[in-house]
Every structure is written in structure tokens, then in C-alpha cells.
Amino acid sequence: MIIYALINFRHAKGAIPDQEFHNGWFGRWAWVLVPVIVLSIDLTIASSASSTLSSVESHDKADVTVKVIGSQWKWTYEYMDDDIKIVSNLKKLEPTDPLYLRDVDDPLVLPTGKRVRFLLTSSDVLHNWGIAEIVPKKINIPGYINETWTHITKEGTYRGQCYENCGTGHAFMPAVVRAVSPTEYEQWKVTRKAQQAQAAAEASADKVWAKAELMAKGEAVYTKNCLACHQANGQGLPGVFPALAGSKIANNSAALAEHIAIVVKGKAGTAMAAWGHN
Asked: Which CATH number characterizes residue 187's domain?
């Protein structure tokens, strides 16, 4: 219609604008009919989309509620009704392994046949958690809670990732869910709570630790939280994560206070996260 008007009603062809067009029947009612037609088309499309949206945003009572916290670069899962906390980090694998950059050391465990509600937030920057096969991705915003849910029907391991470009370590932030039967899930909760209670008791006990025990615990902490960035040999990733091997802070007993401060509070302007809240 526009091309037709440009060709047939151009000034060069001698077309004279109708100065009274707005006073005619069509000129008056076109302002009503056109928006009505456009709005009707929009509502037709929205009617089918609204049912999907209401399903995704359903707020029915959940059997399990999990808070998903994104951090650079790990996921923390808090079971709101069971006082269970999982810190899920990238699992160290060789590049030739099929699950390289796709597996974690401690996956999220969920029951099948139950309604699971997710509350999503972040401790630093924007993240985006999701598992394409079982739950739609949704953005994790610092200081804000987003919500979504799932109902898993088949046992197995499901893999996702952070779908937001959350920084230089973005590739090291996979998300893994292990779906088990309700019976196995209840057994897992009992075992997990016992393990957490034992760890808490050890941490609060007035035990004098031998150096070998401290070294073993330190290695476990490093493997779980630091290895993905600083690497197993402490050499880091050149240009991305600094090396701890040969570091004037990490290898200098005189700089112990500075070293602890960096671990606890992080380092502004870098990818070094604060670990004091863990």
C-alpha cells in the first residue's frame, strides 16, 4: 500500500492532498478501527502465550524448595526446608574427557515425581541458571529473587550451565542435577545431614590438628574451591588467573595477614571472589 501510494500519489505526478480527509467517514473511524484490529491480533497471539506463561510462573505449593545462588564461578544450592547446603564447583577433568567443563564435584540432588520450586539470586554479578531438559533458564540477579519450578519424571543426570556471560570464568560454571527416586532422595538427605553435622562438629571442636591432617583438609578445600581458576599445579591461567606458585603473598609467611584478607574479602577489580561467607 505504501509503495502504491508513493508511485500514484506523488507530487511529481500532480497529486493534490485531500485537506478534508479527516472529516470524512473513513478518516474519522480509521483512528478507531486500526488500533482495534491491531489489538485483536495481539490478543489472539497472547491468548495462547498466556497459558504457557501462567504454567511457567505457577505458584502452587512445592514439595521441595531450593535456593540457587550464582557466584563467580560456582553454584550454591540451599534446601530451604531441610537445612542442607551444596556448593557446586567445576570438577577437574582432562580436556580429553567427554565431560570436560560439564561436570561438577557436588551436583544438585532432586527427587522425581515431586514439584520442585527454585528461588534464584546472585551474590555478585548477573548469572543465569537452567537445565534445558528439566527446567527453563532464569536470570539470577543480585539482591533480587526470581522463581521457577520443575517436575522431573525420569531419573538420571541432567546438565546445564550459566547462560549469562558472567565474567572471564564463565566457561567454568556448569550446572548438574542428579534426579533420583523419592526413596533414594530421602536416604540421601539423611546421609547429607549427618555429614554436615559431623563437619560442623569437627570445625567447632578444640582438637589439635596434626600438620598432615591440616594439609589434607587444605588440599580438599583448594581442590573444591580454587583449582578451577588457579589450576592443580598453582600456575593459574596466564592472562586470566594469576599463579599462586612463586607468589610473594601466597609463599611468604610474613604476608600471612594479607593472604588471609584476600581469601576472606576477595580482591576488588579482579576475579578473586570473597570466601568469607562460605
From this structure: 2.60.40.420
* 141 in Cβ contact with 126 (< 8 Å): yes
Phi and psi at residue 135, in whole multiples of 5°?
Answer: -150, 135
**Which neighbouring-strand residues pair with 44?**
none
The Cβ of residue 68 has, within 10 Å, a number of other Cβ atoms equal to 24
Cα gap 175→161, rounded to integer Å: 5
| Rounded distance between C-alpha atoms, residue 270 and residue 41, angstroms | 50
Read off the pLDDT of residues 223-240 as tens digits, 9 standing for 90 and up.
Answer: 777 776 787 788 887 777
C-alpha–C-alpha distance, residues 164 and 170, integer Å: 8
CA distance 135 to 161: 12
pLDDT in tens, 33-54: 989 999 998 888 887 777 777 7
The amino acid occupying position 261 is: A
- Looking at the structure, do residues 153 and 95 belong to the same domain, yes or no? yes
Q: What is the C-alpha separation between 6 and 22, in angstroms, rounded?
A: 20
